[in-house]
Design a protein that fits this description.
The complex is a heterodimer of chains A (435) and B (309). Chain A contains nine helices and 23 strands. Chain A is 19% helix and 34% strand. Chain B is α/β, with parallel strands linked by helices and 309 residues long. Chain B has nine helices and ten strands. A six-stranded mixed beta sheet of chain B has the order 3-2-1-4-6-5, with helices on both faces. A four-stranded antiparallel beta sheet of chain B has the order 8-7-9-10, with no helix packed on it. Classes of the chains: A alpha+beta (435), B alpha/beta (309).
């Protein structure tokens, strides 16, 4: 890989476009599916790799005696990863094209790292699953799709990689295509694209493959650049978890009292009638501030400060919603939980829970079933969840949660569980319902 | 200075990526201020920490920033950086704490053996200052695009009572739900601009009209070449045999220790010109100008494990 071939004379990164938007995507694939090579390829072809980084990788590849430049070395940031040649933790990487910036959550594909995939998928707009064309769909590809569907990642791309090793055969692609679409009907995947690629040779990654003229769909990069993510947010149901109360107590702002937070759903407008939860007190929005600008409206994911007309008692952990469209405070929570630590989750266990800006404690009342994410079978015999297992759990919380179903709102429908003794995050929860 | 641009009207309820990054960073600042007893913002006076200060200002406006800022004075900073810092501190009315390496050496907290760079002495000085002040959270301006070990770090980076980072023991970070639990003696390093790139920082500085130290802009400077880097002529860093000092037109991409921070030849004298230059740069800012990252392939990882920010 000569530098001249990969570094074009013009730009390394595109000039700034003030309207540039953002796509967060999570990658998943098994150890040898070529995920690191694909990410390396996307970074390289979008000119997001610098000469010094590439030189470092080339010299390491040489000193290890490889006869090619190992692009995986670009993404394996830790000494222990480079030693073992595997990825052990989520890493975030960045590249941009003229209209869009991309944040990649690069998640390891090993079965023992389900928790890392859940972590990466929790913030993703799009999930990218790689399969090896020679192997076809494996248990792991199905597992990745199931996790992305559970996490409600709205867009899924199945990249059928290593097409060069199957002579770019349309048959191979069609078989995988068929098998996967029929499997995906069982899942919540609103948008699916299946693209045949060769990450190593660059076919259909950024440039259209001449070797696969039978494929009429977009290249991977074209799809990433154009997939429509704007309508994935809930702009109807107003949800504003209060994060921080701004009280300047200065001469200039003597009576200023603002509720700061990040809009989790809906559109807030000045003059709107709102209710503060859990108190149930109603008031009107007197103004919305974004730093020293007063703005007309706020929507997700803006961080703003809301002022109310009346002096109602609102503090961190409360939520502002519309009067006739507010979540019901619930202490009994039914949720899918992904367990992330070696000591299993068992009934009667007590944990700390963090939901939006609200923190409390939770008691595990029941574990209804463990989901086999390979077969989607619901195992009701096992009454505990081991590390990297996902199951349906009933919780009783000390504080009422102001929640929505996760399928409706990924922010007000999610929570984390924390071990009170160690302080470690041990579980990720997606709410089915509260009552 | 560029005139700040007012927030656009959003007929289509779309935020630009820069607005999304800003919203995310402000969310993190507010979360930490809510949940930690004693946060502090680590402030070097470089472009990243100035952007951090601007974001903190926005997060709590019209109230003042509810935590102090702390500078680790390595005694070898650029004068221009100190001047800019002083103006920011005065304008925002924040409390500035200075922890100096010279002071740490005098008190025997660190040992200057004449071989260790000031950069290495920064780490124990920082950890000691966090401990002495009882800080439970320390904001840093680290970005994941800077370096491959950084790409692996969480927004909330847990540090044990020795200030150490253990990459294998990191907490999973889900949605925007940050877990700030710590035991007595431990603290959290917080990186609100993790998801920003070098270009985002420049774009934001331009958009917001943020004042930064003059050394980022093109100027004439007496420099010499060492290990492929252009270093400033200064009594703190005597030239070695064969090194020739000459005047060149340069600017800096990062601000650090004057003896280790290289400059690049450049005529970029406005933010727009800098953005143009950064967009076509073929070498990373650290690769081009930071001697401290050149010690080994895992230099940053090793320093971070010891407690570097």
């Amino acid at each position: 890989m000569a530098n001249e071939a990969t570094q074009s004379p013009e730009t390394n990164q595109p000039a700034i476009n003030p309207d540039m938007d953002l796509l967060r995507f999570a990658t998943a694939g098994s150890v040898d599916d070529g995920k690191s090579t694909l990410i390396g390829r996307l970074l390289l072809d979008s000119k997001s790799i610098f000469e010094d980084q590439l030189e470092a990788v080339e010299s390491t590849s040489q000193s290890k005696g490889y006869d090619y430049t190992d692009l995986a070395l670009l993404t394996d940031g830790l000494r222990s990863e480079r030693e073992q040649g595997i990825t052990i933790d989520v890493a975030y990487r960045y590249f941009a094209t003229p209209n869009r910036k991309f944040i990649i959550a690069d998640t390891p594909g090993h079965v023992q790292y389900t928790r890392n995939m859940v972590t990466g998928a929790s913030t993703a707009d799009l999930g990218l699953v790689l399969v090896d064309a020679r192997q076809g769909l494996t248990e792991q590809s199905r597992r990745h799709a199931v996790i992305l569907s559970l996490l409600r990642v709205p867009h899924l791309v199945l990249a059928v990689n290593k097409m060069d090793l199957v002579d770019f055969d349309e048959e191979v692609y069609s078989k995988i295509h068929q098998e996967f679409t029929s499997f995906a009907t069982k899942l919540a995947i609103p948008d699916l694209e299946i693209i045949p690629i060769s990450a190593l040779q660059g076919d259909n990654v950024v440039t259209r493959s001449e070797n696969m003229d039978w494929y009429k769909g977009p290249t991977l990069m074209h799809h990433l650049e154009h997939v429509h993510v704007a309508s994935d947010r809930d702009l109807v149901d107003v949800r504003f978890p209060v994060q921080y109360v701004v009280r300047p107590k200065s001469d200039d702002f003597h009576d200023y009292r603002g509720y700061a937070g990040m809009v989790a759903g809906g559109v807030l407008k000045k003059g709107d009638e709102v209710v503060a939860l859990p108190s149930g007190m109603t008031s009107k929005i007197a103004g919305i501030d974004l730093f020293d600008n007063e703005i007309d409206q706020a929507f997700p994911p803006m961080s703003v400060t809301v002022r109310l007309e009346d002096d109602v008692d609102v503090s961190r952990g409360d939520m502002i919603a519309r009067v006739n469209n507010a979540p019901k405070p619930s202490q009994d929570i039914d949720a899918m939980v992904c367990w992330m630590t070696n000591e299993p989750l068992r009934p009667r266990q007590k944990l700390a829970i963090k939901h939006t800006t609200r923190t409390g404690r939770a008691l595990v009342k029941d574990i209804q079933y463990r989901l086999d994410i390979n077969t989607l079978h619901r195992d009701q015999e096992t009454k505990e969840l081991g590390v990297n297992e996902i199951g349906r759990v009933q919780l009783r919380t000390t504080v009422p949660l102001l929640c929505d179903p996760y399928s409706k709102n990924r922010t007000t429908g999610s929570f984390i569980l924390i071990d009170e003794a160690t302080g470690v995050t041990v579980g990720a929860g997606m709410i089915n319902s509260g009552s | 200075m560029v005139e700040p641009v007012k927030a656009a009207t959003h007929a289509d309820y779309q935020l630009s990526q820069l607005d999304q990054l800003e919203a995310e960073s402000i969310h993190i600042f507010r979360e930490v201020a809510s949940e930690f007893e004693k946060p502090v913002l680590m402030f070097s006076g470089g472009k990243d920490s100035i952007v951090m200060l601007r974001l903190a200002e926005k997060a709590f406006y019209p109230a003042k920033i509810p935590f102090p800022i702390m500078q680790i004075d390595n005694g070898q900073d650029f004068d221009e950086v100190g001047e800019t810092r002083a103006r920011w501190v005065e304008r925002l009315g924040v409390k500035l704490i200075v922890a100096s390496i010279d002071d740490a050496i005098a008190r025997g907290i660190v040992v200057d053996d004449g071989k260790t760079t000031r950069n290495r002495l920064q780490t124990p000085t920082l950890i000691n200052a966090i401990e002495e002040n009882g800080f439970t959270a320390a904001f840093g301006g680290g970005r994941r695009d800077e370096e491959k070990a950084r790409a692996k770090e969480r927004v909330y980076s847990h540090r044990d009572e020795f200030g150490q980072w253990d990459p294998k023991m990191q907490r999973p970070e889900l949605w925007s739900l940050y877990n700030g639990r710590i035991h007595p003696g431990e603290h959290m390093r917080i990186f609100p601009i993790s998801n920003w790139t070098e270009l985002d920082i420049w774009d934001y500085i331009g958009r917001e009209g943020i004042e930064i130290p003059e050394i980022y802009f093109s100027h004439k400077r007496r420099v010499f070449e060492r290990d492929g880097m252009l270093l400033s002529e200064t009594p703190l860093n005597p030239t070695r045999e064969g090194e020739v000092v000459e005047e060149r037109v340069v600017r800096f991409r990062t601000c650090g220790d004057i003896t280790l921070t290289g400059c690049v030849e450049s005529t970029a004298s406005t933010i727009e010109e800098i953005i143009e230059e950064v967009a076509i740069a073929k070498v990373t800012e650290r690769g081009a100008t930071r001697g401290d990252d050149r010690f080994s392939e895992a230099a940053m990882e090793d320093r971070k494990k010891e407690g570097y920010f």
